[in-house]
Design goal:
By secondary structure, the protein is of the alpha/beta class. The chain contains seven helices and 15 strands. A five-stranded parallel beta sheet has the order 2-4-9-12-15. Strands 3-6-11-14 form a four-stranded parallel beta sheet, with no helix packed on it. A hairpin with a 2-residue loop joins strand 7 and strand 8.
Length: about 210
């Protein structure tokens, strides 16, 4: 593990510590500044660090290995976002405000269209690696994972590729979308579907498969 990998592995703990200190400040000395510090700890700081990290270490699509001597930009990006995987309520709260979560994802570098409905239990692996059109609806417990890791000999192979979803798409509850998945416009994804890497799916293709 490289030095920067080691440093960023402590980032989630640093965010929690800063957030805890800010929370104590809100409890014992409530005010606009203490509330702003709390919000910055959990939302502003990870976003700011990710933007700086992405400027110097942009994530490249394709195959790479995590066990080598070279730094993995995906690893750093993952550590910065890990706080939202561990404490999903931080983003679930944003989904209660119309348009807030879509704006949040855009700030991370995602492309998100208009009138997208996000359910509270949605899980996203890499916020900067998704493209979503207009009028898309996600069912409960869906997952978007633009990366996959698998053991290979004495190393860990990483495959990264954007997930792209068109407009007027319905993603059924419990469905999982993996790296390179492309969902065409006006497609219905049944509940509990698992779309494997680099799958291209549309209503026309589903009809062909059924026939």
């Amino acid at each position: 593990m490289t030095l920067i990998s080691t440093i960023l592995s402590f980032f989630p703990a640093a965010v929690m510590l800063l957030g805890f200190i800010s929370l104590l400040s809100v409890c014992y000395s409530p005010g606009i500044l203490s509330v702003a510090a709390l919000l910055f700890s959990f939302y502003g700081l990870p976003l700011l660090i990710h933007k700086i990290h992405d400027f110097f270490y942009p994530i490249e699509e394709g195959i790479s290995y995590l066990g080598g001597k070279e730094y993995s930009p995906w690893w750093g990006s993952h550590q910065i976002q890990l706080i939202y995987v561990t404490f999903s309520f931080l983003e679930s709260a944003l989904r209660l405000i119309p348009g807030a979560f879509s704006l949040w994802l855009r700030l991370w570098g995602a492309k998100v269209g208009k009138n997208v409905y996000w359910t509270p239990t949605l899980e996203i692996g890499d916020r900067s690696l998704i493209e979503i059109g207009d009028r898309v609806l996600f069912g409960q417990s869906c997952g978007i994972f633009p990366h996959v890791v698998k053991p290979k000999k004495q190393d860990l192979m990483l495959y990264v590729k954007k997930v792209k979803i068109g407009s007027d798409v319905f993603i059924g509850a419990g469905s999982k979308l993996t790296p390179g998945v492309i969902v065409k416009d006006e497609t219905f994804i049944p509940a509990n579907s698992c779309l494997y890497p680099n799958t291209v799916i549309s209503d026309e293709l589903q009809e062909i498969a059924l026939n």
